[in-house]
């Protein structure tokens, strides 16, 4: 669980102070009073920002923090003092009016936002919630909304600091931080009259509970309609299992609302018709809901309280109630519902909704039940309606921290080893890249000359590859498999210049590496646009690439390539793109005099023996040239550290 709290000047303030800036840079300033400094071009602005490698990092927006999820290599850079760069985000203001009540939940807020902006509508934007409705949402509810900003592609989301955050901080042993935040309250809320790139307004009083699915998180139906839709689509309406908990939606309030629903059923002698599982999100939640009786109520209604873990949310589920391949419906309050995610059964229709709706549906056992209007029949034959649940936001007593299972790291970590199984498919220690040997790069082969668009997704595809993020050699098997080879118009098919056979790009790169031959990539305009993905720079370096020559680069990818010791270069005359053919050999000469602002010379050797010389521009500054010479930015840092110690 990664909710953290950091003071910050609100993003809207930052924006108005820096109107027109194109890039933001966050600095880690160890030892200074300022934890981070956000630099936008010429502006230096004291502020605080948190970057984390967990996709749940934006939860911190529920405590008024600018908290952004990044890749591991980016986080390493920041810890090591290298600035983290991002394209300056747009700011979308979401004005909340009315009050959240009844069966509606924070999730319904984000669904509404998603409905207005569409799934990709938040891309490249920070979403700032404000307005009088904010105070009707619990602190953990705000965290849920921020967490789910990922569903619409937002960089992160943030709420203004308010009394509910203060209360939550107090209850979780951080009253001192609340006191500090109070002191700076005027900086922790949007300026009056601040300008947003886009403003949308949502009346919380008018929100209806929704359910999403099956098979994608952005197909939303009002709970009142889902039964009819399911029948029409031929989705099973009988619910086999209801699942709540895991990292998100397992706050004390969530569990309390579920227990409040369960209690009403128990009072009428009812138990869940469906199977029902509860995965406590943390040891603290487990211990606190046991102490306060919620866990027992959930068991009494037929639930099974599982271990504190990700659990079925990420597929840790030894499901026994159906056979693989059997068509069935489950309802969860998890945050993703990709096909097969929970139980590896592609025929499982997973619907996502709030914990209290999952509980109500598990009691009724069918998607056709609308808790807002429908009646249940009690054990005594009498009909009754469930009341919208009401539960404490925070426990009356302090949270029970439960068992302390934290293992403290040693005071001196210098002698520690990190053991990784040599047969692991998913983890591998990163080996330092070779230092520059002081020579020119002679007679490089061209791995691929890319035609047209080449985003970071073409360079390092996501999807199934993401599980290899911790294993550079394995993930490198996706290198440039999406890029189109200009020679044959195909993806992932390039000529091996040593054997003349066509084969996949990664295999060809591996062959060159094995033969000790360096290689280059030729690209078109805006090479490496898209989300910053460090693997798009690590992989070519790992497989023996040295130079990427394009008409132009997306700036962040260009910096990422420099960090890994590659040379991102651009044609001084873009027309020279046509002079290079995939069968040519390239030499970059004059590297001994590599200097900022000074173009490099490239000799093209055609197979017929003729040669041409072209000039290549670059944007390296002094310290970046040192990265190249050391083999990578990390190597350079190590050198500097050894020098100073
Ligand atoms: C930043 O500062 C430089 C040098 O002082 C100046 O040339 C440039 O115009 C400034 N840029 C902006 C966006 O103010
Ligand atoms: C929000 O909706 C409620 C219920 O429909 C209505 O009474 C209220 O006036 C609305 N508020 C705003 C600001 O539109
Ligand atoms: C997840 O939900 C979406 C709609 O919200 C649906 O289209 C998709 O099929 C669901 N996925 C699964 C595995 O049920
Ligand atoms: C929480 O539950 C909602 C359904 O209410 C779901 O859409 C969401 O993704 C879950 N996760 C988070 C982080 O809130
Ligand atoms: C991943 O790495 C392991 C160990 O190096 C190797 O045996 C395996 O074939 C690789 N898997 C993939 C999918 O590349
Ligand atoms: C490359 O740099 C030279 C001078 O250093 C400049 O004249 C030329 O315009 C640059 N090329 C491009 C495409 O920017
Ligand atoms: C050699 O090949 C290059 C590239 O295809 C071509 O431009 C050049 O004219 C050829 N030279 C000779 C002498 O054939
Ligand atoms: C070089 O650029 C980096 C950004 O990548 C910046 O942090 C650094 O201060 C620059 N160094 C010099 C010497 O200009």
Automatic annotation (TrEMBL):
One of its GO terms (biological process) is tricarboxylic acid cycle. Its cofactor is [4Fe-4S] cluster. It is an enzyme of class 4 (lyase). It is found in: Mitochondrion. CDD domains: AcnA_Mitochon_Swivel. Catalyzes the isomerization of citrate to isocitrate via cis-aconitate. This is Aconitate hydratase, mitochondrial.
């Amino acid at each position: 669980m990664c909710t953290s709290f950091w003071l910050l000047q609100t993003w809207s303030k930052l924006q108005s102070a820096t109107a027109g800036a194109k890039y933001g840079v966050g600095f880690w300033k160890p030892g200074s009073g300022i934890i981070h400094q956000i630099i936008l071009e010429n502006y230096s602005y004291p502020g605080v920002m948190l970057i984390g490698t967990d996709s749940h990092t934006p939860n911190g927006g529920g405590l008024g923090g600018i908290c952004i999820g990044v890749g591991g290599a980016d986080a390493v850079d920041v810890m090591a003092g290298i600035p983290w760069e991002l394209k300056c985000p747009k700011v979308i203001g979401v004005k909340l009016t009315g009050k959240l009540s009844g069966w509606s939940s924070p999730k319904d807020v984000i669904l509404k936002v998603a409905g207005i902006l569409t799934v990709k509508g938040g891309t490249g934007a920070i979403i700032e919630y404000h307005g009088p409705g904010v105070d009707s949402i619990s602190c953990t509810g705000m965290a849920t909304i921020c967490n789910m900003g990922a569903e619409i592609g937002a960089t992160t989301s943030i709420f203004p600091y308010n009394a509910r955050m203060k209360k939550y901080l107090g209850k979780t042993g951080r009253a001192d931080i609340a006191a500090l935040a109070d002191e700076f309250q005027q900086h922790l809320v949007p300026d009056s009259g601040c300008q947003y790139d886009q403003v949308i307004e949502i009346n919380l009083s008018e929100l209806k509970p929704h359910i999403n699915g099956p098979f994608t998180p952005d197909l939303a139906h009002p709970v009142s309609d889902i039964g009819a839709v399911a029948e029409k689509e031929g989705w099973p309406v009988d619910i086999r299992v209801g699942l709540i908990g895991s990292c998100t939606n397992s706050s004390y309030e969530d569990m309390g609302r579920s227990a409040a629903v369960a209690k009403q059923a128990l009072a009428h002698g009812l138990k869940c018709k469906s199977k029902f599982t509860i995965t406590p999100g943390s040891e603290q939640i487990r211990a606190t809901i046991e102490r306060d009786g919620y866990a027992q109520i959930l068991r009494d209604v037929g639930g099974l309280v599982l271990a504190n873990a990700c659990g079925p949310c990420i597929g840790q589920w030894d499901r026994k109630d159906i056979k693989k391949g059997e068509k069935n419906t489950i309802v969860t309050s998890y945050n993703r519902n990709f096909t097969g995610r929970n139980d590896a059964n592609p025929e499982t229709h997973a619907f996502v909704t709030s914990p209290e709706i999952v509980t109500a549906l598990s009691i009724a056992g069918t998607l056709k039940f609308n808790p807002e209007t429908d009646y249940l029949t009690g054990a005594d034959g009498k009909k009754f309606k469930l009341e919208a649940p009401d539960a404490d936001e925070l426990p009356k007593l302090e949270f029970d921290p439960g068992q302390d299972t934290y293992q403290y790291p040693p005071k001196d970590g210098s002698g520690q080893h990190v053991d990784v199984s040599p047969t692991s498919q998913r983890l591998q220690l990163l080996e330092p890249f070779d230092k520059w040997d002081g020579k020119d790069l002679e007679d490089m082969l061209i791995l691929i000359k890319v035609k047209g668009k080449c985003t970071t997704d073409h360079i390092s595809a996501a999807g199934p590859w993401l599980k290899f993020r911790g294993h550079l050699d394995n993930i490198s098997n996706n290198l440039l498999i999406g890029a189109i080879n200009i020679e044959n118009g195909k993806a992932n098919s390039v000529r091996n210049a040593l054997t003349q056979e066509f084969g996949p790009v990664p295999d060809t790169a591996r062959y060159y590496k094995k033969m000790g031959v360096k290689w280059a990539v030729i690209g078109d305009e805006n090479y490496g646009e898209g989300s910053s993905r460090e693997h798009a720079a690590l992989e070519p370096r790992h497989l023996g690439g040295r130079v990427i020559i394009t008409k132009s680069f997306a700036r962040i990818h260009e910096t990422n390539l420099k960090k890994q010791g590659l040379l991102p270069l651009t044609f001084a005359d873009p027309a020279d793109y046509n002079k290079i053919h995939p069968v040519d050999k390239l030499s970059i000469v004059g590297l001994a005099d590599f200097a900022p602002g000074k173009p490099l010379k490239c000799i093209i050797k055609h197979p017929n023996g003729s040669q041409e010389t072209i000039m290549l521009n670059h944007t390296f500054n002094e310290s970046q040239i040192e990265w190249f010479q050391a083999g990578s930015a990390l190597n350079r840092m190590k050198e500097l550290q050894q020098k100073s110690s």
